User: Fold these one by one.
Assistant:
Number 1:
Amino acid sequence: MTKNVISPQQVADTLTQKFGDGISKLTIKEWAEGSKKTKTYSIWVYLDRSLLKDAIRHIASLDFPHLSVISGVDCGDHIDLLYQMSIFFGMKNSEIKLALVVPVPKDDLTIPTISDIIPGAAYGEREKQEMLGVEVVNIPDGRRLFLPADFPEGVYPWRKDESGITPDMVKELYKVGRPTDRPVPVVKPKEKKKPVKKETPAKEKTPAGENVVPEPVAEEKPEVKNDE
Amino acid sequence: MSEDGKKKASYNVPIGPIHPALKEPCLFNFKMNGEVVEEADFAPGQAHRAIEWMGMRRNPVQIVHLTDRICGICGVSHTLTFARCVEQIAEIEVPERGHYVRTIIAEYERIQSHLLWAGVAAHELGFDTLFHLCWRIREESMDVIEYLTGNRVNYAIIQVGGVRRDFTEDQFPRIEKSLKYYEDLVGKMLKLFLEDKTISLRSKDCGVLSYDDALQLCCVGPTTRASGVNMDVRQDAPYAAYGDIDVTAVLPDVYGGGINGDVYDRIVVRLFEVVQSVGIIRQCLDQMPVGEVLWEKKYPKILAACKKAVGEASASVEAPRGECFHYVRMNGKPEPEAWKVKASTYSNQLAWLKMVTGEQLADLPIIVASIDPCMSCTDRVAVVRNGKRDVLTKEELHRLSVEKTRRLMQ
């Protein structure tokens, strides 16, 4: 099982060649870690929405991609959907990370499904529908994924506008306090420490002895006094 | 009854949200035909805690410790992935020794996680002696982690720019002792798991996931490797000290049985990864450079660097269960503009549907457990649990599983 591995620059070239004007920005990032500074590469492609499926098909023709996750960011007037995948895995240091960033305007929040090309994407698409309110056209399974059944409709937790989580939905646990319909805990409030504190000044009251007697003995002295 | 096939009613068996195999909640719904699963469905999200939402209201130095709490078992994987994202955005270079400390802790975490899983798998099959043995052995790695980081779980060792504590010279003999301990035990563990008749009977050809399904459903980690997909972040895109070290993905054919993608293969992969982890720690100790472990000792300076950072980055780390992926976007504010966490189980859950179809109800606990699911990792948003549901409790299912083992042994 050998893969036809090409360099990140070549991958970027094939993308620009094929999609040209549809790509608004393309960057290749490089990062190195370890003593040997082993380099890893990631390609970030800002792509027009209409080209998404073609781009995924093109990538799949190079090597069937592993889709890590679909991320989403609310950028105000549009939502960025990031299809983050990797190709050419399976050999030492050969992997290239690819992020297809697709801006979706808020007045038309739709995106075609890619689960016909990558079946595993259905999971992430369900999550994007419920978390960002992006409608995934032709999604094979449109149910909610993580949100509970009684979560209000039209509220999208990742949105930063008025349809996001409102302050009244947030439970500040530290403000909640103890429930009133339960018995009070039997633990007594900690008052025992106070008399101990009163003793400590008593220790300090015998500074004269400190010069002569070592500390542990000095601690014993007040106890003896109490016993008496 | 079987004659008039049309009238044979299939029925639904809901399992959960209290988890059938593990201690974590997930709701399953199986459409059964007699003893055989016809269709399966599941609803995750029963353990949501809104961690991403909380993160977007905190600064990176705080989030690092929040990521520790995403998962109790793969704590270091999430912190490491998040730290790597922020380091890329703020262009912070981790000192070489910091990379090695990260790698060693990550490998100890893999050992303890895989052994914990091996114990759970044995328990699901009704082999409780082996379960206790596995967890006893696991304690050694937990002890070393506690010795090195100060904590058994939530290690709090990783910081943006490196690690918070260095290993001291007098700690190395203890590490060496633990490596020796595992090297001595390897043969015994492999024999107990892989040559045992009960385990073979229950796990071979059970819960099969084909190569194509594993690839197309984007599975990760031991689950996908057991199906023959050669994918391991440590090998494919080396991070921390893995670039300096010899790491290759463990496929089930290391044991000579070929690649079948069944539960047995998942056991093989995980056990041999424990062996591999011991080797990796050895290599790290041999090559470990001297020097600083943190980019900047003063945390306010780290924070200041993060606050100035503008940009986006993603990072992935091979957690015990597979690829752990984070995406962070910063825009010159203390708190990130976006933070997405993808835990390994997120990618593996869809594979359940393929694995359980056509299997028996009594096999479900071990199949569900075989991807080593970690619900707390995967579910991270706010939650209210409602109403009563008819459920098969974990105990009932476990009893079914044990009974099947007994039947097979007769």
Number 2:
Amino acid sequence: MAYDSIVLVKQVPDTANVTADAMKEDGTVNRGALPAIFNPEDLHALEAALEVKERFGGTVTAITMGPPKAGEVLRACLFRGADRAILLTDRRAAGSDTLATSYILAQAVKTIGRYDFVFAGRQAIDGDTAQVGPQCAEKLGIPQITYLEEVVSLEGDRVRIRRTIGHGWEGVEARLPILATVIETANESRPPAARRVMRMKHARATVEIEGAVRNGMPDADDAARQAEVKKRAEALQQRGLLIEQWGLDAIGAAPARCGLSGSPTKVHRIQAIVLKKEGHTQVSATEEGVRDMVHELVVDRTLG
Amino acid sequence: MIEPNRKGEVWVFAEQEDGSLNEVALELCGKARELADRLGVEVGAVLPGAGVGHLGEHLIAHGADNVYLVDYEQLGHYQTGPYASVLCQLIERRRPQIVVFGATPLGRDLAPRVASQMRAGLTADCTDLEIADVTDPRTKTEHKNLLLQIRPAFGGNIIATIVNYDWWPQMATVREGVMAMQPADASRGGRILEEEVQLDGALAALKLIKRHVEPRTVNLKGARVIVAGGGGVGTKENFKLLYNLAGAIGGAVGASRAAVDSGLIGKEHQVGQTGTTVRPALYIAVGISGAIQHRAGMEESAKVVAINTDPDAPIFSVAHYGIVGDFRQVIPMMIKAIKERAKE
């Protein structure tokens, strides 16, 4: 029996490796200067889906929601073995919190229709909320299995999964379809396959072609540009390299439930963390220095 | 979502496992008490489980006025579906204005499911909660007494304050260990109310096959002193020095992610954003550079001593005492000084 998987992936700023280049003079992070990467745990979600496909047959479809640039993570999925990639992009989705995001993703999953698994990374490193997976499962009305470590067995429509529970693990059985969120220790994510990179490196979504045409034909009028976009898109389509692109209308999403208007949580204030040099007592690395410090810690009752 | 209900209670999800409460539930009772006093309302604790009625008095002693006990055989082991249904039924019945959960693996599995079903807002992993009036910058409407949900975001590089104007209840998960647990007051009065709920068998979509719980061997949260090592410690052998120092002071051994990732010490020792958040009386950081994710987990410590060979290491920015030097020499000096004090 073959199984069809959908993987939810996200392009994120690399918040884990903030280098000096991305720091502003006032000691805060310049978010725009952070490189955009494939959210680390989503690579493990993709790997889990690819492993199911390799063991049992079936398909893997990758979906991402984001600006045109997010097409990059879809190509990364195709290079690793995804069969199909869909870019969800719509200006009306901008500013979505986790509730609105999960609504949009769930609408996209419903539009795909048939599936056995939805895999997602446990959380994305820009927000670290871990909310979109469970909320998407709720919107789809299917069970969620968070913190997947291993797909232990798969027989008919019954799957056994090992998940971590923080200070231990549990083995659970569920009937498909389910949504699972995957943690980084679940598997080793594979590198891109060279042959697939060669074959699919030119894959683009229409919105990416539009951007390239705008840059490449700065003096042309709209009609000429549109004709060029159409020509390039058709050429890619013939080679099977046109990445599907859906907006809110294509997935039947109610605009009022998307973007800012569909988001109950509002950002009230943002404070940058400033790397400040506060004064501290310099202690010399000598017996005397250390003895004085221990003495002070005893006197102020920190020690003893 | 429910309509804003300004007389609604402040609720805590009372997470328990095998009949014992997770400490974060008690930490949250204290914080909820503070918020509820500010709002002039009562604190409710929702306690689902099987045979867990005896836990109610602890929740009351730590600040709850009303414990909503949902005692059903089917709730013996946590499972998302039935627990989410319990929370949603109670929220619709009693219309609290705030619901907080511990940001534990269980709380972070449950809260988003509940929020999605209620179509309410939810903020993850808060490190502080406050009450304040907030004006919506778009409509200029003033919203009285909203819950400010304060959390690090962007890998800990910013602090965001999140609010929820009217898609109530206002929900948040709160990181373990950041709210100080208030001392238990056995004389506090409160009520334990048994709640009835509908539990459809289909909600329990998962069958539990096997469960393995590892005993907690390291008690970082309870330690008065923590001696923590980073990548700079270099070898497992060197970590023994840290154990010796912890032994001399009566402290626990912690670690940064770098030390855990390079296999110097187990993950249960990890302090920081992805590990445990601690607030000991004394935190001794050895060979820890002090990445923002690590500092997020320890900067509430009352006193911090940093030992590092690099004078520019960021850890010194949160230190009270900084020692630029080799810990292999400094730690034996510290042990010696502490032993001398003990003799006096």
